């Protein structure tokens, strides 16, 4: 805990800086158009009324409606922890990737007794929260909704419902009206695992006054690397607000190897073939993976290779299946419970929430979002379970992690002469030889995987670093009574929820 003499961070109301008028006007103009877009996108689903209500602040389940102490509790072994009078923290994670990244941190906060209200922007992120935090949601210790739009009337309604003691935003999801109203209401806001790529920095510079207001209204920025910290300061963040903590992407798997679901164990129990996975793929990447698979099958050394194909978004599952069939490769679909035969060449993992199982089964992992201009998904997921990694040139979302894994030989990245969308078509000539080498020389793949697993274990301090900064901020607000965190061994108090 910080000393009682630590300077208070609570600013007077006058210190909150409103976004420029043109930003507020733009939000007001776009709000009805966004509502129409949400309605069209969600109307095919049964719960679209709930989504619209949550995004526009018309209906939430209030924390005060939760069961009172004595009626509900979380229980681990013989120890019962009550939490319904504990501080509530609002955490916003945009999509699946951010939800996975912040999950270990939220596990510790839940284990300490905090209540959490978690919001997502995308339907993929929303579905992941429902699965990942099923136990906490069922008990009522965690609440969940879509994020409210950044319109003052909606944000005020949301804050009145939730009444958070503090707000956590994951990576780079910042909204000017929201940060202004949080500051105005004396609610500390913390950017967790803050990341600001060169491209994002350039975009924020184009709206300099909006960016400056956000940097001012944020209470604390925990940047995941020196480059991001420098860019946040260049946008106007006071140096004393910017801290550096290593990326939470390193601790996404924790220190334990996840167990395989029984159905997957049974499906692969008798398979003795080289297996590689193309995971979290986007449009354009599946075809590259299928081309590589066809090359592997044409070589006697890798003719029995099996590709596990895992598209990132469920709405693309059927399109991916059609693409595999059009390629002439034999396919089995996970969603249809089709078994893997000796003749099966591609296994389409068209289900959600099982990505870590595919990484664990594979001898080599191609991490998607990196062959096309998405920014790259988290390579620590496969590296943490000892699987060597291939990635394309588009890794600006996780570049520091990529560089560290590459330095120890756990990751091979394609190098691009240019940064244009057309350039990803040349990725095969950079990465295919390494895929072939790792699949046909398993001792090399095992050594590379072990190097990645060892580095991941060394980087687990990122969790305690960021938790310590959050704890320090909370102690400096008189209206918050922080709960004790076991920073020496955060895993000892973390809630163990669904993988």
From TrEMBL:
Q: Is Ribosomal protein a UniProt keyword of this protein?
A: no
Keywords of the record, alphabetical order, are: Cell membrane, Lipopolysaccharide biosynthesis, Membrane, Transferase
Question: Pathway membership of this protein?
Answer: Bacterial outer membrane biogenesis; LPS core biosynthesis
Citing just one GO molecular function, the answer is: transferase activity
Q: What class of enzyme is it?
A: transferase
| Main localization (coarse) | membrane
Subcellular locations according to the entry: Cell membrane
Ranges where the 3-deoxy-D-manno-octulosonic-acid transferase N-terminal domain occurs: 76-250
What EC number(s) does its UniProt record assign? Answer: 2.4.99.12
Q: Which Gene3D superfamilies match?
A: 3-Deoxy-D-manno-octulosonic-acid transferase, N-terminal domain (3.40.50.11720), Glycogen Phosphorylase B (3.40.50.2000)
One Pfam entry name: Glycos_transf_N
Q: What InterPro entries does the entry give?
A: Glycos_transf_N, Glycos_transf_N_sf, Kdotransferase
Described by its record, this protein's role is as follows: Involved in lipopolysaccharide (LPS) biosynthesis. Catalyzes the transfer of 3-deoxy-D-manno-octulosonate (Kdo) residue(s) from CMP-Kdo to lipid IV(A), the tetraacyldisaccharide-1,4'-bisphosphate precursor of lipid A.
In terms of PANTHER family, this protein maps to:
3-DEOXY-D-MANNO-OCTULOSONIC ACID TRANSFERASE, MITOCHONDRIAL-RELATED, 3-DEOXY-MANNO-OCTULOSONATE CYTIDYLYLTRANSFERASE
Similarity field: Belongs to the glycosyltransferase group 1 family.
Protein's name according to its UniProt entry: 3-deoxy-D-manno-octulosonic acid transferase
The gene from which this protein is expressed is waaA
